[in-house]
What we know:
Number of helices of chain B: 4
Helix content of chain A: 40-55%
Distance between the termini of chain B: 93 Å
Number of strands of chain B: 0
Shape of chain B: elongated
Radius of gyration of chain B: 25 Å
Order of helices and strands of chain B: HHHH
Helix content of chain B: over 70%
Largest interface: A-B, 54 and 48 residues
CATH topology of the largest domain in chain A: Four Helix Bundle (Hemerythrin (Met), subunit A)
Structural class of chain A: alpha+beta
Oligomer: heterodimer
Strand content of chain A: 5-15%
CATH architecture of the largest domain in chain A: Up-down Bundle
Amino acid sequence: MATDTLEEKHTDHSTDNGSWEGGEYPFKVGYGKLMIWYFLLSDAFSFAGFLIAYGTLRFSTPTWPVPDFVFSLFPFLEGHHPLLFVTFMTFVLLFSSFTMIRAVQEGHRENRRGIVLWMFLTILGGLGFLGCQAWEWTTLIGREHMSVTTNPFGAHIDDGIYLGPDGKESAETFKAHSSYLIHRMDLEATHAEGEHGAGEHGAAEHSGEGEHAKGGHAEGGEHGGHAYSAPGDYPDAVVDERGYVHRKYLVASGDNAGKIMTENFGPKAFGALFFFITGFHGFHVFSGVLFLLTILVNVMGGVYIARHNRNEMVEKIGLYWHFVDLVWVFVFLVFYLL
Amino acid sequence: MGHDYKGAKKIALKTIIILAVVTVVEVMIALTGKGYIIEGYHAPKIVMNTLMIAMSMYKAYLIVFEFMHMKYEARGLMMSVVLPVGLLIWAIIAFLYEGNAWKNNRKVVHDRDKLELTVTPPKTE
């Protein structure tokens, strides 16, 4: 419904019986815009439910992986850059929100070229964000071996000292609440190399493992390039059937002081929650990009100009797109900052 | 429409700059809290978390009221969307309290499970 006709109707509501005749717009917006607001409200509750579930499970476990340890890799950069990549992602989405509002403003002016330009930039931003997320997921799954059911990121409850290859205490110590990543070695590859059985291969494997430790988190994960050939109990670690290396350590504080323990997997829920919630948000971004594309094509075809409602459809997709950004503010807060 | 458009453009630019700055400050706060910015200094968690939550709420306010134009909509529409969100306040308090209770009862539940295993089942004749 066109807003300019609404205002006309609205002026004569002083004549009392008018309200019963219909044609009143107490919220002064068209049906579509009102309904997208209520859709977004319901969607906000879905996301709130998921994030509250995250909070509940986090509160219910004694330890939780520290986000600035988990999310600390950056493409093409070596080493540890806590939160740098997610901040970059946030900026990509934030600026696509800005280009979207510019598109809406051009829509109010009925400036078709302006709408097309700014909507196109918004789509690029959305695709950029999805690309970033794809990289983040690939790194977590492929390099750090996190899955929906296995979470190699853990945090120590007590202070402790790692055991060296000789089974004695090494120089490497850690404090309570510090994070660790349980590395996984490629058992099959090691096996194939073992068949060739030469010292040279051992050296190659050695450096490969070292590289992994460097790439996939230095802190707490550096393992002096030690390689294990098969699952089993080693003096300094236990290697499980799937190739995850659980390092051994001597507990130095707390109730268990003096005991030798192995690093366990972190809370299982972490991986499932991460993939589900960021996946659900990513799906919103993805469908948002599809909607934007559809509306962009319609704008170019002059569909909305013919409606004479100041491109309300651009405004509606704008509301959806800002909402996606709004949700990210809270996903960012809950997953990465707190 | 001309003046309106210029004003709106200005507001949008101002809002995005504030959002970007607040985001950077938030990340700085998060890293200071974890001891990255000042070597070895871990800022108190409660202070840092409160600050970050407050800043995120401010960001949410800017996105909804400026970018999504809620500030300029009818009051009734604004109320009908914003007030229901208030229900979440209790949801957050209740569920986090519940989560914490699970954690505190972990040992009790663990001990009780062990207890049941060691009890010999009563003989039935």
